[in-house]
Amino acid sequence: MQFTDIIFAIFMSVFFCIYWFALRHNLRLQNVWLLSASYIFYGWWDWRFLLLIILTSLSTYGTALLFKHYRRKWLIQGNIILNIGILILFKYFNFFSENITRLFSLFGIGLDWFTIDVLLPVGISFYTFQAIGYSIDVMRGNVHPTRNLIGFFTFIAFFPQLVAGPIESAKSLLPQILRERVWNTRQAVAGLRMILFGLLKKVCVADMLALYVDRIFDVAEITPVHILSGGILFTFQLYCDFSAYSEIARGCAALLGINLMVNFRFPLFSRNIIEFWQRWHISLMLWFKDYLYIPLGGNRKGKWRTIMNYSIVFLLSGLWHGAAWNFVIWGAYWAVCYVLGRYLLHLDRHPQSKISLHDLPRILLTFGVVAFGFYIFRCADITLILHGIENAWIYVLFFGILCLMAKISVRLLKSVHIKGTDVGVTAIALLSLALVLSGHSMYLLKFWWLFAALLVVAIEWQDRNCDYPFAIAPRNTLLRRSLYWAMATFIVLSEPTEMTFIYFQF
Hints:
Helices cover 67% and strands 0% of the residues. It has helices at residues 6-22, 27-43, 49-70, 73-105, 124-140, 149-157, 170-178, 185-217, 224-255, 273-279, 282-293, 303-321, 325-344, 360-378, 382-390, 393-413, 423-436, 449-462, 477-493. It is globular and about 65 Å long. The two termini are 16 Å apart.
């Protein structure tokens, strides 16, 4: 079951009504209903997936309580090993088996290479990391293990963020599940806006971009232009796809009276690569920071140890995304970029100023580095990656020219000041309304979806210094309702492409 399916709209509507109208004053029944709905949602792909998530939940719940009673670290460590072992078995076994066999063959040692034919459970990397985080927090004494079985199982399987995050900590999500929830109209309205905007990004932008990206990477002979356009378009596709899921997830949770963390904070507007990793997939990077980087010593044991710790984090982050060499190389690419940016360029780790138009040159340069990285991420063939590295000059040339043009433009615009934050949204909304007034005539335009993309860019730029896009709706009632109508019309009239969320594979 996907957020973009009609069946999910029906599922969410029925669940919402029972959750608030029938079970509003009974927290235990509310959580039982929430857990049941989460298992239905997850089992919709394959009921066998439920066996693994129940095993993970049961082992993590039980070992935490045993640890509280006996204070034996090996209990927690054993559960962590179990969960990592399950993840390796289902996601990485074939990759390791194949590459170990190839490694030994270089020394003339023949090994019997065998693989196991197993289906990768959707979202296993996300809920496994969430369970491991809980276990470590209990061992550190940061979280008291709960005895509430239903509440804990719901924490692991909470359906809005179950299959593609954000990866929540027990300190944040679990207390919200264990305490009574009260209806909040303002929270619900914000949640509906997040859902609407997320659907627009996914259906009208990410899915349409995917069609063009697939064509670029499927050509027989890839040229420097393909390398450049492939990296740029895939970056937009991936961002719109994954951030859309996170926004819809946060919106659904908000309708249930639960706050999920911000997972993307306008990363494509980052002014340097250090800031980018503070804005992209925030929950994963915080997980690696808390449970890997800091335990390895962080930056407390000297420069070279810190560099090694950064490298380990990025390499494992790459491998976390998938069992293939392109993900490992992507992780290595970012390890090099991050270390160079941190120690050679001395980039600002915490830019305090708000993002403005004057930052455009730096934003473009940062985007170029990010886009080339995602070109590597998208290549399934090592040959394509090597070909891309050989032609990396096309990124330097293209984004160098863009940066120069942006600097000239910013200087010319320094004396120009446009009042009002709704100007961009107003212009795009009116253009969108004019387009869709004639209904199905929008299909006559081959690139109709670019209007939706422009609307997304306008909204995100307007809210770039907020926590999430569409946090600020136009104050004018007519404009606000027109904007909602235009977005809904784009979604309804969009061509069905049946594209799954890209991060479901992780």
